[in-house]
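Request:
Um, any thoughts?
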Amino acid sequence: MNKKLTCVDLFSGAGGLSRGFFDAGYDVVLGVDFDDSALKTFKANHGNAEAMKLDLFNHDNLSVITNYLNKKNIKLDVLIGGPPCQGFSIAGPRNMNDKRNYLYLAMVKLAKILKPRAVVLENVPGMLQTNGGIGAKRIIDDFSVLGYTMTAKILYAPDFGIPQIRKRVFFVGLLESEEKFVFPDPICLPSEYVTCEDAIGDLPALEGIYGDAIQEYECEPLTNYQRVMRKNSQKIYNHIGSIHEPKTVELLKLIPEGKNYKALPPELSARFKYHEALTRYNSKKPSLTINTGHRSHFHYKWNRIPTVRESARLQSFPDDFIFYGSKAEQYRQVGNAVPPMLGEVVAKKLKLILEKQNEE
């Protein structure tokens, strides 16, 4: 039997990208982050993977990783990661000098030491667009110097069966390779996109109640997507409702699905400035990009924000992926993650290349 390809995830968070690699059949051996609750979630959802808390601004800490792998006699096949690059994100002020823009250098330095056969780096599309794409050029140049043949592409989540409008740029590098990585083709036409209702329509309503920490499914899966999400789970976790102030509920009652605060009468809508305030999802479309829980998105039918489980479903986390920490921490973990199914399509394509190399 072929040995599984090994994988280490830097800036792992809860592990959306690495869960994609795990589901594609990789041996995820280690996740590194600085968030305690995210690391607890990571460790619980990636088989026998270890979780390690390290400050990756300090590159001296990379020796902790190399020592661990050496001690376990692990030869690394793929280094993956989604380093924070807030300076390139459209969600906040674009500051090219934000020191977080350079966190990716921890991946470069570790790749130089360990020489994995491939590197996969995921980030915001702004890397390719802001200031003429200087961020993307830095990444490509720095890995190219180490001998990696780099390819970058923006992937659109709904094209790959994920019920969420989300774009992410992926950089894939192959070590000492004459061929470039070719990204997978979309598997869904716009008319086939998985919708919010397709994704979460089977979950309990919880309107006006919190609900129990662990719940029963109330019906059979109603769509193929729900069947996939429920495949390895007998119960519902992380599905706790939010009870809003009566005045918020009264405003929500005035907003049709797919609309936001602009649908309110002018004297009410004038109170809001944030462009996504009081946005109600459209049941017949993918959701907006899942955020880290700042309470601006609402269920298409019920007068409440989506639960952590609903947000996780929209991110393509299966129901057996359980989140730990406070409710706020769980929302942050979900919102910061790469959709696992997006990671998985990249992982599967890369696996074909690496296994072919093994045969040569």
